[in-house]
Amino acid sequence: METAVANQQFTYHKKSGYKGFIIAMVCVCVVETVGVSFLLYKWSPIAHWIHLFLSVSTILFLILDLRAVTKNPIVLENDELTIKIGIRPPIRIQLSNISNIKSGKINFENNRKNKDVLDLSLLGFDEPTFEIVLSKPMTNKSKTIQRIFLTVDDERAFYELVNQRRKTE
Predict the structure, then answer these.
(1) Is the pTM of this model over 0.85?
(2) Is 42 helix (H, G, I), strand (E, B) or coil?
(3) Residue pair 159/101 in contact by the 8 Å Cβ criterion
(4) Tell me: the pLDDT tens digits for 35-55?
(5) Which of these, 115, 99, 103, lies nearest to 158 by C-alpha position?
């Protein structure tokens, strides 16, 4: 059986409860869609079809995002760390641009609202396992990023492998 270190891929969803949260949200959306659609159809068939379309789109988005979260691990390849959370755009960080990796639990609550911070934790209320501090700021959608908070399931292997790769550069 291959390990996360051998693959150089790291999951980030298994310890977060994201799967249960999305399944619960889909169930709530289905019940809400059926109930509201039934009421709307009697009042206005056009409003019913608009609501039905938007509700089905939301449910599909949630299911596709869950699938993407489970299929897209964090990848460490050559000298680059690629972080793709669900269907959001990927973040690519050169290992030479990482000045420090530290516990994300230390500064997260104080710094999560800062403009130079990118929070890649899944649910937003989970504490991230790591804070990656960049040597040079990078730009993402016209936002300058100096620090990235993220969650990784296999914390020790991720930390050791990234630090090992940083030292060999």
Answers:
(1) no
(2) helix
(3) yes
(4) 999 899 889 999 999 999 999
(5) 103
